[in-house]
Amino acid sequence: MPMRPVLPVNILLMLLPTAVSAQSTDAEYCAKLADLALRYVGKQQNGQLKPDLDTVVAIDKCQQGDTATGIPMLEAKLRAGRVTLPKR
Question: CB–CB of 26/65 below 8 Å?
Fold first, then answer.
């Protein structure tokens, strides 16, 4: 009976913690961007800063775990508002 190589499974198991760590790091970064966007980007209404629809959508994407969509949107909004981005 031929033996099957188990190397690919071992490699996947070793990489799994890295993938999970990257996802949580992206989620944390997205949350930081969202906080900055809510504080510094938007329009003044009745003495309060209100985020625009694009910012709200980007924050919602982050909260749903779609950081690949939310992060670039928030980064663009913050850059346009001349807000310094946090370290990633």
Answer: no
Q: What is the DSSP string of 30-67?
A: HHHHHHHHHHHSSEEETTEEE--HHHHHHHHHHHTT-H
Q: What is the pTM of this model?
A: 0.71
Residue boundaries of the structural domains of the chain: 25-88
β-bridge mates for residue 50, sequence order: 43
Q: Which residues contact 70 (CB under 8 A, 6 or more apart)?
A: 30, 33, 34, 58, 59, 60, 61, 62
Return the C-alpha torsion angle 69, 73, 76, 78, nearest 10. -120
Over its length of 88 residues, how does the chain's per-residue pLDDT go in tens digits?
555 554 454 544 455 454 444 556 999 999 999 999 999 998 888 888 899 999 999 999 999 999 999 999 999 999 999 999 999 8
